Every structure is written in C-alpha cells, then in structure tokens.
C-alpha cells in the first residue's frame, strides 16, 4: 500500500497500531504531512480531523476516558504543538491515556529563526509521563519502533509526548508493508493485595470509624455492586465524578458542610480516612478533613498520592476496585459509625427539601439542574463543564452510567471537546454535555471536527457569564465583578449552535423547559438546548439555600449534644 516515504512517520504509526492504537485526531498543517499520510493509509487507524489543536488534544483525551486505550493527537510545528499543553496537563492529573505527536522542523534548522518554530523537545516535561524525540535521520528502524511501543505502553497511564522532526519534501509516498507485531500489554504496576498493617489496626476495633472519600476517577461497573454494602459497613463521601454512588454515600460537600454550619460534629468524624481517585472538588471540604488530623491512606496505582489534606498520605499500591473489595471484606458486617452517617444524610435530605420549599423554588440555575437531573434519563455518559456546572452536578442524582468533568486541572478549556471525543468513540450511545455560557464560548472550536458525532446533545446554562465569581468573596465587593470577572460575552447561543451545525432549542422558564425538553431529547440530530437564567438570582438562591439548610437542621451544638447522649435519631 502507498504510504509516506518518511520512515519515521511510517514506523512510529505502524508500531503504535501494532501495540493497540486505533484512533488518531489530526489538525491540519504542513510539517505533519508525513504523519497524516501514514495514518490515513494505515488499515487499522481511524482518523478524525479537528481544526484547533487545543480542542483536538482534548478530543483525543475524551476518546480514552472509557476504554483506557490511548488515542493520539497530531499537530504541525510551532505554536500548534504548544496548544496540546492544556489537554496533556489535564490527562496528567486525571491519569487519562493520551499521546501527543508533534511534527517539527529538522534538528539542523533549529535556532535559525524559521517560521512556525519553537523549542519542542521536552516541551511538556513537567506533565508528560514520557518525553521522546524520534529523529528518522539518526535512528535505526528497530529503535524507532521500540520507542513507539514504549510510548503506547506508558500512555495507558497518562500523557506521552513524541516530537518528530521532518525535512522537506513532506508529501512523498512509496509502497510499504505493514508489520504484524504482538500487541504490547500496558504495565499493570506492582500491587500489594494485603491491607497495610497500620490500616488493619483501625479496621480491627469494635466499631471501626473509617471514612472513604472518593474524588473524580474512571468508571468501574464493580463499584455499583460494592457501594451496596456501604450503608451497613462503611461511611462514604464521593464527588459525583468518583462513580461511587448509592444509598448512604454523601455527595455535594457544600450541602454537607452547610448542614452543619461548616464544621462536622465530633460524632461524624472518623478515626482515619481512606481516599480513592483525585482530591475532592471542594477546597472547604478538604480543609475540614485536614482539620481532623487523622491518618490518611490512599488506594490506587498512581505514581504519587496527592497530599490533599495537608500531609503526605500512606499509599496502598493496589487498584482502587480491588482495594475497596478487600477493605469491605475486612470490616464487620455492621458499623454504628456508618449507621450514624446514614441517619445524618437522611436528615440532611429532608432538611434540603424543606429549605427549597421555603425559598419557593425560583427559576434559577439550581432549579434548572434539579429539573435536568430528573429529565435526562437516556444518557449513557454525561459531561459537565467547569466551574459551576460541575459543582451543581454534585447536588443531584443522575441516571447516566458515566459522569465526567475535566477535574484534573479544572480548567474550562476542553469541556466540549472531551465530550465530542467520548461521543465519537461510542456512536451507539447517547452522550450529553451540560455547560455554561463562558465554557461554551471558550471551547467552541470543539465543534469544528470531522466527522461530527451525531449522538451528542448539549445543554447550555446561560446565566450571563462566570457565575462562579458570585460565589467567591472579593470580586463583587471590589466593584469589578461584571466587567472583569463575570464577563458576559454571550447574549444567546443560537448563532453559535447553528454555526456548529447543531439544532437549537431554548427555555427561559420551568414551563418552557417542560415544553421543549422532549423535542430536544428526541431530536435525531446533534442539538443544543439553551436554558436562560438570572445570574444574580442564581447566586443568591445558592447562598440562601445553604443558610436555610443549616437553619432547618438546627445548630451544630444541638446535633453534637444528641450524639454525646447516644441518640442516633437526628429527627
């Protein structure tokens, strides 16, 4: 078959394909032409074309979210290569598979001031798990193929960057044969099945006071089964993106802390904390946990566990799923500490219902999300943009099997693009994105992709800009909120939706949302539902809800007195 006449491009792509690479996202350019030709000609490679390199890299990252197989993203040289950086950083902190391949000018031409030239060697050294340069003018075929296989193996755990210099001419082709190699199996990593001795000491007491805290992590179906044991055996808190959800599992740290006036009662504080996944979303919740000064173990195969509570955790190097299984097996069949968490969560849930009714459910972001959580029933995967969308998501139960937000770095770049990549990988599944107007505009180039996924549905909450800054003390007090922080750039999203080829629907009230939701939900084409709310009212309701929730619960002192008198019923 005719393919590129550049040996580096041919052998790197062929070796990666032999090691399991199937999907490549390409941004148009010239210096990367040998890689484009090699990918297009390869029988085992599927290509996607994305205009913007920053979006392209996030699309490739989204492709690896479910199956954990690295997808590659290819750029031309210069600033195009640098634009892979945000996705590489996100993949690094999320431990998501990703390979960035950047074309470069020949090594001999560096330092001559040529166009589209930057220093691309070790460009992402701070975040990539592996940095390679494959120079076809200096390396033998076996060396290039070996490096490509290494890149695939390492990329199963996080981002890898491969820089490839090419000399002109760039568009030549020749007849080559693809090589069949045994697929390279990614490293599983060493794991210790035994529960660490010190942690075992905390489990082997009469009533273990263990609190599991889950942050964002990749989905594992086994967790649904394991979570069924939590109410009886293990107290648990999990961000919604941690996929550890079910009865007796706390979420929404804002809800939890508000209910107790910002400080957890002594009766609900554990003797040790066990974490899985990324750090929990809320800084206030992390500070509260840190204030307990209890031992902290982290379950996972990450290279380094996060010092999320102010001190270095004790690592348990085992898969999170296997570790949870062993932990549950070691716990007694009933824990009064876990039961006290269950009682507290039930009381908080009732107090929240009362607080919402007391505030008369105005049309705002919170009530819009409440309706969406009840209506969005047919989605296999739901993505949430940073910042307020991801935070509102914590308050509600969602039927989607997989939930995702770019919480590794928690930037607003790539939120749409990651959903596009996920949808492209699973054309038979319905994939949704709930985003804000600022995040939508910031990643709008994620729509400029071929082929475009027909199974993507977008909800855009247009509240007039970065509403998260109304949650933070400072911007409004300075008088700079509207102009410099909230920055409302989008009046309505109809034009942007149509420019991206999406059908458009709009709702400005609960009644209108009821009217248009089914039309949007059943629309056979990719479509966008814009929900318009008042940003000032939305922020006020969110603050009022937390205040009234605490009032409905009663003071922390009263709750503490009930614990101290061994009265577990918080009614």
Note the topology.
Elements: E1 2-4, H1 7-18, E2 23-26, H2 33-41, E3 46-50, H3 53-63, E4 72-75, H4 79-82, H5 85-94, E5 98-104, E6 130-133, H6 141-155, E7 159-165, E8 173-175, H7 197-203, E9 210-214, H8 222-227, H9 230-233, E10 235-238, E11 249-250, H10 253-259, E12 272-276, H11 283-292, E13 296-299, E14 314-316, H12 320-330, H13 336-358, H14 365-375, E15 381-384, H15 388-393, E16 402-404, H16 415-425, E17 431-436, H17 437-442, E18 449-450, E19 456-462, H18 475-478, H19 481-486, H20 494-499, E20 503-507, H21 510-521, E21 527-532, H22 535-553, H23 556-564
Parallel strand pairs: 2-3, 2-4, 4-5, 5-7, 6-7, 9-10, 9-12, 10-11, 12-13, 13-14, 15-16, 15-17, 17-19, 19-21, 20-21
Antiparallel strand pairs: 1-8, 3-18
Helix pairs in contact: 1-2, 1-6, 3-5, 3-16, 10-22, 13-22
